[in-house]
Amino acid sequence: MWRERNQNKSMNILVETDRLIIAEMTMDMAMDVHKNSLDEDTRRFVPDEVFETLEDAKETLEFLISQYGSNEGPLVYAVITKDENRNIGYVQLVPIGDGKWEIGYHITKASTGNGYATEAVKAFLPVMAERVGINEVYGIRLLENVASGRVLGKCGFQTFFTGEGPYHDGVYEISKGVWKA
């Protein structure tokens, strides 16, 4: 468990909420990142973020960690529960071209339904928008991912497109929204 390996190490915390710590990823989170990525919802909704082996997770973590301090992205942060000090997912800001950025997030299936994604995104957005120097962020989801739609709505994203569009490896029914600072 992440807590046992890290209880005496300091984290580079981006922001805290009542229940969560959003912090930079570290290499000792590799096992959690690997296990969290194998979640059935990750496989279904963001298959390019599945790390089949621990080595795949470590390689990706090395790259993600190298992005901190830059505004190039992706800028991915761990979501950790305060009560159990458990790594339950991530929240990220990813460049999508033309100076535009997209929000991304995933909370493990075992921790969904508790409002963690909404809490993390609400805390993350204003801090990262200011840090990167932007005043709007896009949210793009598969239309069938109803839970993600609820998170975006609760976080102030206004839907401006629903229909067929590009998503990861193909064309699907999607929804696009925008959040403005």
Low-confidence stretches: 1-8
Shape: globular
Provide the helix percentage: 25-40%
Classified in CATH, the superfamily is Gcn5-related N-acetyltransferase (GNAT)
Number of strands: 8
Distance between the termini: 36 Å
CA radius of gyration is 16 Å
CATH-derived topology: Aminopeptidase
Strand content: 25-35%
Number of helices: 6
- In round numbers, the mean pLDDT is 91
Q: Numbering strands along the chain, what is their spatial order in the largest sheet?
A: 1-2-3-4-5
Described by strand count, sense and barrel closure, the largest sheet is: 5 strands, antiparallel
Structural class: alpha+beta
Any idea what the CATH architecture is?
3-Layer(aba) Sandwich
Domain unit count:
1
Name of the top-level CATH class: Alpha Beta
| Element-level helix/strand string | HEEHHHEEEHEHEE
Q: Concise description?
A:
The chain has helices at 2-6, 30-37, 40-45, 54-66, 116-132, 146-154, and strands at 13-16, 20-24, 75-81, 87-97, 100-107, 136-142, 158-167, 170-180.
Describe this protein's structure:
- It is a single chain.
- It is built from six helices and eight strands, in the order H-E-E-H-H-H-E-E-E-H-E-H-E-E.
- It is α+β, with helices and mostly antiparallel strands and 181 residues long.
- The chain has a single domain, classed as Gcn5-related N-acetyltransferase (GNAT) (Aminopeptidase), CATH 3.40.630.
- Strand 4 and strand 5 (100-107) form a beta hairpin.
- Residues 1-8 have low confidence and may be disordered.
